[in-house]
Amino acid sequence: MDMNIDIAATPEDVVQRCARHVIDQLQAALDARGVARIALAGGTTPRRLYAELAQNHSNDIDWSSVEFYFGDERNVPLDHPDSNFRMASESLFTPLGIAPRRLFPIVSPQQRDPEYDAENYERQLRTWSSGPVPTLDIALLGMGEDGHFASLFPDTLALNERERLVVVNPIPKLHAHRLTMTFPMFEAARSVCFLVTGANKHDAFASLRGNDMDTPTRRLIQSRATDWFVDQACAEGSGP
Ligand code: 6PG
After folding, report:
1. Separation of alpha carbons 143 and 156, rounded Å
2. Bridge partners, residue 226, by sequence
3. Which atom of ligand 1 sits closest to the CA of residue 46?
4. Tens digits of residue pLDDT in 119-150
5. Is 45 in the pocket of ligand 1 (CB under 6 A)?
6. Does 68 sit in the ligand 1 pocket, CB within 6 Å?
7. pTM for this prediction
8. Which atom of ligand 1 is nearest to the CA of 72?
9. Among 2, 151, 154, 164, whose CB has the most other CB atoms within 10 angstroms?
């Protein structure tokens, strides 16, 4: 359980430190292979990270050689307010002028059957894979209060998927289906970076090193090294 934890006083400090880490990871990939492949996180927390990257790191790397994927997506159109792709487009892709050919949303523009989109995404991932599981350079993740990451929620079917790389996962507590990469993709990534802030995440974060809650995030960190960028409120349960 190799957790490399960086604790900063405020969410703003966390985002700045996480942004520099992401830039370093992307540059290392560009240096080694001439291309960098990142899977973005959804939700609300990463929006500030994407804005930081767009506003203060636009000249730090060759963004035109970065391919943008998603660890998960809601089953909604790409322009829907709940779409992770829309959130990333507003905060990162549009401000940086990322070419559409470098963007790989999970949900198709026509928003066909989600099963078709999940299978098609897996085919897309495998086009650049030389091994059994495509190797992302960095998987950026958030964590829910229940210890979920991406759309791998506790007690859901996708947790046990070991063959398929992208699936439609029914989430009873949300009364919705989500599309998500599965554990093999996150286990194989060259680096996994969690960005988690807020006292509301303290219990889930603290349980990662206890034995009381077996969550999807705890399962991932037991399988590989992970980098964490958290604020004091998340780490200690109290803000500055
Ligand atoms: C999503 C994310 C999800 C998110 C966590 C934390 O599509 O919502 O993939 O896993 O990272 O739920 O969300 P917040 O950042 O909004 O707390």
Report:
1. 16
2. 3
3. 15
4. 999 999 999 998 999 999 999 999 999 999 99
5. yes
6. no
7. 0.97
8. 9
9. 151
